[in-house]
Design brief:
The chain has 362 residues and is an all-alpha fold. Helix content is 77%, strand content 1%. About 1% of the residues have low confidence.
Length: 362
């Protein structure tokens, strides 16, 4: 039988633990920050335990994930179908390339990425205002025209490198960054690893902001517009303003992704921003699950690693390098068809539905 003194000692600890648990359950920001820190830790371990080729793949996954996250907000949360996000990535990439076209860039890399994001945000705001009255297949057609037009327009500007594009000169890594990386990881920081860190830091920060935005009043407004425009308008929601805001946030993410892509690929050319890129981003969002940032990340991982895996398996099976490379798009297409047939809600949507049914059955 516990004494009064023991109860008095235990009660404050129990009350403190209960308060902390309640705060954790009701604070989305706290949970998102914890997940962001955990994500950075996992990414650091992956980057440090893999080679240069895997680091370049991780950098590719980072910029695809940033763009897919923005498209998730627009299509999965607000219900606007965009087929032209590759064009907004081109705006961010060319902005970055113009800042990094010399031996000694005038601005630090974070400022360059911020500039690419802001320039693309301005372009997205102009397009979003013009397309605010469109929805469904009409906005899809407008963004499709944008995706087709932007690479062609770039060809007519010699200052943008024409068909050959612009080379991106990565500046030397600052000494303090090299010292800090060696102190934390115990290994040297080479350029490919540096870009991977930049890309994943940008992705984690972007997802942290998007996750909190999706849980806020703005996110609830976007869901209301997606689910029932008439009911949302009766409730006092300004439909045009909600659509433009979603479009601006999404295009800003695409601009940031384009900036990271320019650093990772080291060249910015019109051929890299064809309609295929826009359709690829949309397929990643559909595969992972509409409206889910986790799904966007899973779809980006499939886009990044599945083609290389299939190509390697084809070479091991005796195919030539060309035939093995041609096999990868076919397998990716079959994978997408299978997911749509078996899991129409996407990978994350299907898993969540399965877990809910399990909990209901229990």
């Amino acid at each position: 039988m516990p004494t009064t003194t023991e109860t008095a000692v235990k009660d404050p600890a129990a009350r403190g633990a209960g308060a902390l648990r309640r705060r954790w359950e009701h604070s989305a920001l706290l949970r998102h920050l914890a997940l962001a820190l955990l994500g950075l830790l996992v990414v650091t371990l992956l980057i440090e335990t893999t080679g240069s080729f895997a680091n370049s793949q991780l950098a590719s996954m980072a910029y695809l994930g940033i763009a897919a996250g923005g498209l998730t907000v627009l299509t999965g949360l607000n219900g606007q179908l965009s087929l032209g996000h590759g064009a907004f990535m081109a705006v961010g990439a060319y902005t970055t390339a113009l800042f990094l076209d010399g031996e000694t860039p005038a601005l630090p890399l974070p400022v360059v990425l911020a500039a690419a994001t802001l320039v693309t945000l301005a372009v997205g705001a102009a397009v979003g205002v013009a397309a605010a009255r469109l929805h469904g297949p009409y906005i899809a057609g407008a963004t499709l025209a944008l995706a087709v037009a932007v690479p062609g327009v770039v060809l007519h500007f010699e200052s943008l490198g024409g068909e050959q594009g612009l080379g991106v000169r990565m500046p030397e890594i600052p000494t303090w960054v090299l010292d800090a990386a060696y102190f934390v990881t115990g290994s040297e920081l080479h350029p490919t690893k540096y870009v991977a860190y930049i890309g994943w830091t940008a992705l984690v920060v972007t997802y942290l902001l998007l996750a909190n935005l999706m849980r806020s009043r703005v996110g609830r407004t976007w869901r209301a517009v997606r689910d029932d425009e008439v009911a949302a308008e009766i409730a006092g929601v300004h439909l045009g303003r909600a659509r433009v805001l979603a479009f601006v946030v999404s295009t800003a993410c695409a601009g940031l992704a384009g900036g990271v892509m320019a650093m990772a690929v080291r060249i910015t050319a019109p051929s890299g921003f064809s309609l295929t890129l826009s359709l690829t981003l949309l397929s990643a969002v559909v595969l992972g699950g509409l409206g889910s940032l986790t799904g966007a990340l899973i779809g980006s991982a499939l886009l990044t690693f599945l083609p290389h895996l299939v190509t390697d398996l084809g070479v091991d099976a005796g195919l030539t390098d060309v035939r093995a490379a041609e096999l990868a798009p076919a397998v990716y297409g079959l994978t997408m068809i299978a997911v749509i047939l078996v899991a129409p809600a996407g990978i994350t949507g299907t898993v969540r539905g399965f877990l809910r049914r399990r909990r209901g059955a229990a």
